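Progress against Task 2.4 (sequence-to-structure conversion) is shown through the following example record, which the project officer requested during the mid-term review.
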Amino acid sequence: MHQLLLQSSLLFLFFAPISFSQDECGPSQFPCGDITLNISYPFHVNSTESCSYPDFEITCNDNLPQIEIGSRAYVVKNIDYEKSVLTIVDREFLSSPCPLPSNNITLKSSLLDYTSDDQSIIFYYCSSVIQIPGDFHQVPCLPTTGNYAYFTTNESHKEFSNCIARVVSVPIDSVDRLLQYPETVGDVLKEGFDLTWESGLCGPCVGTEVPCAPNTDQRPTCLCSSPLTCRTGQGKSIGTKLILGVTVGIGSFLLVCLLFCLLFHKKGRDNVRKKRKSNAHNVEAFLQNYGSLTPQRYSYSDIKKMTSSFIDKLGQGGFGAVFKGKLRDGRLVAVKILSESKGGEEFINEVASIGKTYHVNIVSLLGFCAEGSKRALVYEFMPNGSLEKFIYAEKSRETDTLGWETLYQIAVGIAKGLEYLHRGCSTRILHFDIKPHNILLDHDFCPKISDFGLAKLCPNKESIISTLDARGTVGYIAPEVFCRNIGRASHKSDVYSYGMMMLEIVGRRKNVDDRVEKTSEIYFPHWIFMRLDINDDLGLHGVTTEEEEKTARKMILVGLWCIQTDPANRPSMNRVLEMLEGTLESLQMPPKPFLSSPKRSSHDSSTTSMIITEGSP
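Structure tokens generated for the chain above:
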């Protein structure tokens, strides 16, 4: 614990001075809908940045970049940093072919001002046609609804009979064009108007090493008037105060960390012991409630005997190691020894979810061990191991290559297993970690779903559940599991994972693979969708006959339907089975199912999964 706090303190010490530098305000691309803006000082997209004006935040709403000035939202059309000119337009002008202002557009910002080219256009609203002087023009595009509008550039307001007592002023840049061609009033208003900003405050800091920080008015200010004064020490008083304040703050932080280490080190060890006892109590209470319906219970000495003291290791997963063993009747088994940190909830999940399930495509749990902190699970032995070694080129051998008919039957079998978990059990089971590593193959290559450590149980007719933590393995996690704005976790989350796995089966590779030669092929779902969309040759390994081509296309279409971003657009597993067992001609081309394609990255990028990754990669 104290090591982690010390590292955090050193990181804070290292980065604290940098937080006041101009680097945070460097240029960045800000895509919003069809518009991409270059965001730099004094604008920003994050209100916490210290070297930008607080009121100059650019946001993206309804695919339009916007800035709020005086509690009114304006769409940003362009930012000219060389001339310090911001071009904006009132949002309501963009929604009508002939926009008319409903309110005055007046500038309420001490940091922005109109440019010298700006003029105002005055609108008058009338209930009938009026006799107007020569400097007034009727709006030609206004619908004939009994209301009439006139505009002028004459700022001295006039009074007319039959006119509504409302005069609206709008800044405009193209007055000459408007007066010459009155029918373009809508287009001219949509072009917006220009504003300029002052270049002081943090301006001298831009592109230099001079620090910038908020002043007493919470406005960003250079700590030195120029880079020269900082180098010559004329800004020493402000800089010294800053350094002193940062140093005192860091020293206090380190002292507090040290006190926490001393005061709570012993308490932390006590908490670990209490947690272990609590886990053991919870497991025993669960097993008592399950009663005689649970699989056979073994002692830890029995586990050691059946595995010959753990001599034959089959693999290592996120929840523990798996060893080959043999029961007294001669049956081979796979024994998973759970790590102490995974011995509570994960153990209960496994026993509760598959302890009562009986399906040809679900691995059978034959027994378990719960003795003190020791946890073990005994499964039927799968001689062909996991699916991943047969579909990934880096793990498979030439003799391991499976034909398309076998791959298709494996996909169907997994779908049947998931459909059983979602609909066939008395309690609906959501797996939350479907991936090739968790699909085991018997001697006939019949697939069996395994590893239920992340499973969730819910009443049979419920599908949406509440999860406090994102669970699964990166690359297979449905977006709604970690992004609540997309939807809620449900049985459709398993459908997404199944679809991602299906595409890996078809492509015989990871969906994200930066070792491929062409950049366009890094993200396989994107590449294969484009191939299908233009009806191009799929170029898949081992496809030699027309029947294999149809099988591959059917599996791809099903996979793409399953990985739709919106859970409502994904089929249920029952529907997936119907699609797989139906004809290729009956399947429709799905919409593009992904928001964007990952960029090329280092080989280890798939393991940088924050706290989301559970289980083995």
